[in-house]
Structures
1.
Amino acid sequence: MTTTQSRSAHNDVMKAATVTDFGAALDIQETSLPEPGRHQALVKLIASGVCHTDVHAADGDWPVKPQPPFVPGHEGVGTVVKLGPGEHDVKLGDMVGNAWLWSACGTCEYCRTGRETMCESAEYGGYTVNGSFGEYMLVDTRYAPKIPAGAQPVEVAPILCAGVTVYKGLKNTEVKPGQWVVISGIGGLGHVAVQYAVAMGMRVIALDIRQEALQLAKSLGAEAVVDASEEGLNVGEAVAQITGGGAHGVLVTAVHNAAFGQAIDMARRGAVIVFNGLPPGDFPAPIFDIVFKQLTIRGSLVGTRQDMDEALDFYARGLVKPIVSECQLEDINDVFRHLVDGKVDGRIAIKY
Ligand code: NAD
Ligand code: ZN
Ligand code: ZN
């Protein structure tokens, strides 16, 4: 028997894609299975979506950085195989997920007022704690999303970040049924945002710089599309023409700074602009337009456990269906490259 065989026979090691240095290729390493602590469960992964945030994490793009070595991934779906000490409302064999909001303190001002995504002591899946790019992961059973019965693991995985994030982001636009929303960036987040917006009764304009993304958006219910890469196109005027004066809300999921300033051009007076996308850096904001149009510009980070349950329920009722292509854990560096190059339609998920 080789070492690897005897080791895996003991079932105490696993493979995980690990960030060892910012900007370097992820390393598929063998590590020991983590031991679930208090309120924690060990979960055997079935699938994990790959979010553009995982690329930002591995590149150390943001001012608040994770600490290598770490395992990214926060759209993991799997079954509970071991429970740590403490009480749990999940049992062995249940299907659960991990999420960006891996846990929160439960007692601070934000947690007590239903705003747990603002908790300053929150842990983030695949960022401050190891995530779902491995064969096993830990979850906090008080915060881990419960996967609805009948869900397809690969298909439901993107709901755990992309889905909940845009669902909450769309709620934050305060766009009413029958009003216009622009979804800027039709990637992993944007392609589910189109579906949530349609299900929420909004009229959707999809904006991207890729024709394939815009075609996908149309097939998912966008009434109009804007190709921001078109030479000489004024996106503000294009949207004003479609909507008769500008969009009531704009949701920006794009991974490019230019899209953030454009949101202001596309907004109607009194509109709410919600930022989900997180490219590093900043953008110039015209003070006059913001004041004169009386705009609200709002950041929105994932969603609470309640938002998550609601977002999953849209999926369970067949109102939202992520478009997912499967890959293997070993493909992770290629998938990252495709995300950076803007070559991914919908979402890619690792199948274990
Ligand atoms: P993705 O790579 O799948 O999609 C990004 C899309 O943006 C692509 O379709 C790309 O063509 C498009 N794009 C690029 N430049 C553009 C431009 N100038 N105008 C319009 N569209 C443009 O990425 P994703 O997984 O959907 O993530 C999107 C962003 O959202 C990332 O920055 C990610 O970190 C962030 N994110 C934030 C939250 C949150 O809670 N706020 C949650 C998840 C992801
Ligand atoms: Zn994410
Ligand atoms: Zn808190």
2.
Amino acid sequence: MSKIATEFGITEALKALGIEEINNGTSTGADWFSNGEIIESYSPVDGQLIGKVKATTREDYEKVITTASAGFKEWRTMPAPQRGEIVRKFNDELRRLKEPLGKLVSYEMGKSYQEGLGEVQEMIDICDFAVGLSRQLHGLTMHSERPGHRMYEQYHPLGVVGIISAFNFPVAVWSWNTALAWVCGDACVWKGSEKTPLTAVACQNIAARVFEENNVPAGISCLITGDYTVGEFMTKDERVPLISATGSTRMGKIVAKEVAGRLGKTLLELGGNNAIIVTPDANIKNTVIGAVFGAVGTCGQRCTSTRRLIVHEDVYDKVKTAMVDAYKQLRIGNPLDQNNHVGPLIDKDAVKNYQQALEKVVAEGGNILVEGGVLEGEGYESGCYVKPAIAEAKNEFEIVQHETFAPVLYLLKYSGSVENAIEVQNGVRQGLSSAIMTNNLREAELFLSTQGSDCGIANVNIGTSGAEIGGAFGGEKETGGGRESGSDAWKVYMRRQTNTINYTTELPLAQGIKFDL
Ligand code: UN1
């Protein structure tokens, strides 16, 4: 164990979460096994090996999917509020293990400890939400056009749900899907990111233990581990009616095509290119807080991270100076140390992408306002620490149109009315999150109107990241169109059935059709 790991209690956290030196990455809940290659998990915090996880083979997967399919048949017959009670018990364990899990998220993924805890808090919140939901899986009733007939709709469980999640929210995204899918009566098979395999094992450990203690059938919470080839076992599998995938637009397009080819359902949560519009009526102090947190939080690796700041020319210089000043205050370093604001990027490939983005924006005619660069020396041995950068740019630059998963913020100027800013904000292929900073009611309402933001999330006087679980989360255009977590996102995990019951002695036909025999 490294100095950091010892100082910040990583060994204790791993122990509390049941992580061993070598872990099986395949689990049906009741059984753990794995015959694939070994994946090593290195921390971007200090470059140290944290542990190893054995990947899932095709044969391993077959065992998982058969168990999940069989488990589903039993689980679906349990009343939903009773399934909610299991989720409540699972949540008790999350509350108990919040600190070690938050710490492991921070150490394995590199986000700040506070954000690691925040991520576990999102899991707790969605479980609470799901427990209430377990008594509210409502359908509608309709008035039939025929006398003596009753019509209504109901929601039934869908089956086995395949979940593919990314490294940047290695635990919360799983829970947004599973907590809902479980109360809906589905079995879940999860492939987490191969960049964060230990947090996935930790979560599965918790679920498996609670489920076993409560006699939940095997297969309701399953884990598989590996790269995209393991994900493909699920996307190609007709026994998995729904694939919920979070990650890049490139990955989403492949998954969408594969699953659509067998007429399966997808829930896609893909890339964003999120902007904050700053109008002359904005509160500049709040703008800076929202924009800096949005751009550098999680080292710019949220799909909701702020990538573009679209500032009116009247306040442009003021905002520019305030942003540059704020970036000077940023402390970059070990994310477990609560004095630091910015931790490392996930790995050296991410560092390369970051460097290329900065080179590209200059090549396209951008002007670097806050210099980037890779940090070296004591505390930065992992080679994954970079300086958050700001560049003045134009929306039509190829690099600005592209989502770079790193702390690079583009400053764009607009003039005239807020419609011009909205056009810039919407002028990208992605459509996840957006925000406007203004105290002008007309501007705010226009931004939220039909002619306003085309994103799945549109905020007024808060930044683009940090959404609460109560709302539906997701975006339009190349973001994929899926909605997860709150509101009525649960409906995607169920199949809708329309029922018509005739309680007369006749058989009248709809649309007044006569068919006498
Ligand atoms: C993601 O980056 O995949 O709104 C999810 C937020 C978080 C979730 C981000 N609640 O920033």
3.
Amino acid sequence: MNILCADFVLTCNDNFDIFYNGAICFEKEIVDVGNKDDILKKYKNAKITELPKNSVLMPGLVNAHTHLEFSSNIATLTYGSFIPWLNSVIQNREILREKYSESKTEKLLDDMLKSGVTTLGNISSFGIDLLVCKKSKQKIVYFAEAIGSVALALDALYSDFKARVYEALDLKDEKFIPALSVHSPYSTHPIITKKVVELAKNKNLIISTHFMESYAERCWIDNANGEFKDKFFNNFNPDIKPMYESGLEFLKFFDGVKTLFTHSVFANESELEFIKSINASITHCPTSNRLLVNDKLNLQNIKEKNILLSLGTDGLSSNTSLNLWVEMRNAIYLHTNDEIDSLAKTLILSSTNFGAKALGLKIGQLDKNYQSDIISFCLEEIPKNISNLCLQIILQTKSVDLIYINGEKVI
Ligand code: MCF
Ligand code: FE
């Protein structure tokens, strides 16, 4: 049994309890959290570690949405507007795939770990990241992606997808968690979506899908017009029509399976209400949204509707970093209408408690019986005004000093 003592213990539990001069007692799972004196008195035989001045203990971070396979992008893809980006993906998909490197991905995962990310949700489009993810020190929810709209190719696409899913299922363990992804309403045929949801229900897997990321997607699904028609589908087939009658029709497929809707920047009121009604969550990728669609999610509306919100960096296909502290800082600078301290608290919760709930894992809180995924780091200076604590944690932290996953020290 281990005890860690720190100046600040951010439990990130549902009450957002913070212990000043706190301690955590843990094995593979957390045994107890509280004031240092109480914990030391209660667990006399534990191995005690006193962390340095200004130390913070909190749950490991959860980056709920990445695309490791697209990591070779630096300046290949076009930023600024969604359809030019999508066309540049189509044009460069094979080049990026060929440039994908296992050793670089290992290094990226290692850098993420050092920044405090102990769990990630990764969308796998090709399956070439399978073994790196399986070997990683972090927990990875591995979303095998289904995509395709051409009716004649659906059987072949689905069987390729299913083969990737079964390969992942064979490797399942407590740190490698297979899951499914439906790419989006503009790219995935309803026949495929229906089959993916059935598979998720049969195998008890969660789903991640991109939803209402751009204004172009909104116009296409609502009115079959806009940039998707003029600058994307016209290149392939001018007669093509949206595959779903409405955004709501797409959402209804996911009733009864745990789903993360990524982006949702342009989701309308009835879609958001439906997302809430099926207990699904939204994954916010603020940097990606800035670069690809030049807009941002209305966080106040998400909070008012009580929708679970996780945070993700998206891939290096639409970001320059997979470090969640950088993402939180970017969110602080982007969401200029939100009160800064409450935004900072929301971001920390989205990166811990909420992200964990969205992925269906018993992590993200320093609380009894949760898995011992714990990070610690030291602030250079403690804010004089303690109401700035979350904000200062976000502003000052770049990497962490100590990392435990399932109670094992990994750094
Ligand atoms: O989240 C971003 C933007 N929205 C959609 N897709 C992706 C993102 N980053 C990478 N992607 C991938 C996606 O998984 O790009 C491809 C898919 O394989 C786009 S569709 C040809
Ligand atoms: Fe994405």
